[in-house]
Amino acid sequence: MITIPVQPIPSQSVKCVLEEQNVIVKITQSYNGINADVSVNGEPVSTAVIIRNAVQLCATNRYKLSGALFIIDTQGDEDPFADGLGERFILVYLSGSEL
């Protein structure tokens, strides 16, 4: 499991390399919670996905990403909110072999 650093702010873009794939996760606040856009090697994989606790960010297009991205609540079972990102709510990646 890899923890990917995020900040407790409502709008951010995180770039990382995961299993030799260039991944960008854009997190934005909206009226219904926080959303994520994910691209892999420059190709959109998920767009405007509402982030839920421990639910894959790319569940419908998981074949384009070797593993899986999640935001996990470290203190309970709530859906994430922006000012808890990076502390209470962490962005993690599980490789294909860890799934």
Secondary structure elements and pairings:
Elements: E1 2-4, E2 11-18, E3 21-30, E4 33-40, E5 43-50, E6 68-73, E7 89-94
Antiparallel strand pairs: 1-7, 2-3, 3-4, 4-5, 6-7
Entry keywords:
single chain, 99 residues, mainly beta, four-stranded antiparallel beta sheet, 0% helix
Describe the structure.
By secondary structure, this protein is an all-beta fold. The protein has one domain. 0% of the residues lie in helices and 49% in strands. It has no helices and 7 strands. The strands form 2 sheets. A 4-stranded antiparallel beta sheet has the order 2-3-4-5, with no helix packed on it. The protein has a 3-stranded antiparallel beta sheet with strand order 1-7-6, with no helix packed on it. The model has no long low-confidence stretch (mean pLDDT 93).
Structural class: mainly beta
Quaternary assembly: single chain
Radius of gyration: 12 Å
Q: Helix and strand succession?
A: EEEEEEE
Number of domains: 1
Brief synopsis:
This protein is 0% helix and 49% strand.
